[in-house]
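Project channel, design review

CF: Before we commit to the Rhizobium grahamii constructs, I'd like one complete example in the thread so the newer folks can see what an input/output pair looks like. Taking Threonylcarbamoyl-AMP synthase.
RD: sounds good, go ahead.
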Amino acid sequence: HIIDITVDPRKAIESACDVLADGFPIAIPTETVYGLAADATNPAAITRIYETKGRPRFNPLICHMADLAMAEQYAIFDPVSRALAEAFWPGPLTIVLPLRSESRIHSLATAGLDTVGIRLPRGFAGDLIRAFGKPLAAPSANTSGKISATSAAHVEADLGAKLKLILDAGASVVGVESTIVKVEDGKLRLLRPGGLPAEDIERVAGQKLHRAKKASAAIEAPGMLASHYAPGAAVRLGATHIDAGEAFIAFGATSLPGAEKAAIVLNLSPEGNLAEAAANLFDYMKRADASGAGTIAFSAIPDEGLGEAINDRLRRAAAPRE
Ligand code: TXA
Ligand code: MG
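CF: and here is what came back for Threonylcarbamoyl-AMP synthase:
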C-alpha cells in the first residue's frame, strides 16, 4: 500500500483520487511534513482522519488547495493575506482566513470555527489536489502528540496498519510544519512558527508579526497545546554537557563534554545551517529515541530564522507530559 510517486506520478494520482473519493484518508508527501489527507467536504472522511490520528475534534485541520483561485472559493482574503499568498504560495505558509458562508468545507474540518487555515503545498501534493478538484483537509501524518513524519517510512511505522495508501516522494525537504499566520484587528499574528521564517513574512507584509504569549497561543491554535512532538525518551534542551548513556543531538561544529559517552551522537547540521537542521530534526529525534536512551540532550540552537520553529518543536517535545 506504499506507492513511490516518482515511478508513475499520473498513476499514483489516479490511485490516490480513487481512495479519496471513497472517503478514506491517505498519506501524502508535502514539502513540510507528510500529511494525512482526506476530502475536506466529506464528513465521514474527516472523521476518519481524527480517528486514525487519535486527535481531539476541537483541533481544526489545515485545508490544502491547488491554487489561489480555489482558495478564494472557500475563504475571504484581506489585502495583507493576499500579498502573503502571492509571495509565498505554494510553500510552507498557512493563512487563517474567514470562511465564506457558502463554503462546502465541512465544519468537522474547521472544528466549527468561522475561520479556515489554508495552505498551498508545493509540487506533487498540489498536482494531486488539482486532479481531485476539491480541497484536502490534512493534519500531519502522525499519531496525535507524537513526532511528525518526514518520510513514508515514518508514516508506515506509526500509522501503516490503519492506512489504505501511503504516497512516497522521499524525505520532506523543509522538515518542519508550515508557519501559521492570521490577520486580526489589522494585526498580523504568528500562531505557529514553521517552515517559512518570520523575517521573510515581515518583509513582504511590511509589518512586524505579533507573537502570542505562550499561554494564549495554546487557545489560538488548539493543536499547539503543551506536550506535543513527544518522543518516548525525556528531552533536555540547551545542554552544556552530556551524561553517560544519553542520546546527544548536536548543532554546529562544537561538541560537548561527555559526548564520547553518549548512546548515540547525531548532528542536525555540522555547518550550523538551520534549513538543514530543520530537514533533519524529526528523523533524528526518532533515531535518537530508537537508540533506547532514557534522555535526548540537545545543544542550543539559535532562535533566528528557521531556528524559531525548531526551538518551538523542541520546547513542546520537552514539555511535561500527562
Ligand atoms: O505543514 C503543515 O502545516 C502540515 C502539512 C501536512 O500541511 N500540516 C499540519 O497540520 O501541521 P496539523 O494539523 O498537524 O497542525 C495544524 C495546526 C493546528 O495547531 C491547528 O490548531 C491549527 O493548525 N489550525 C488549523 N485551523 C485553524 C484555524 N482556523 N484557526 C487557528 N488555528 C488553526
Ligand atoms: Mg501535527
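RD: helpful, thanks. Residues 139-140, 148 surround magnesium ion (ligand 2) (CB under 6 Å).
CF: The first helix runs from residue 9 to 21.
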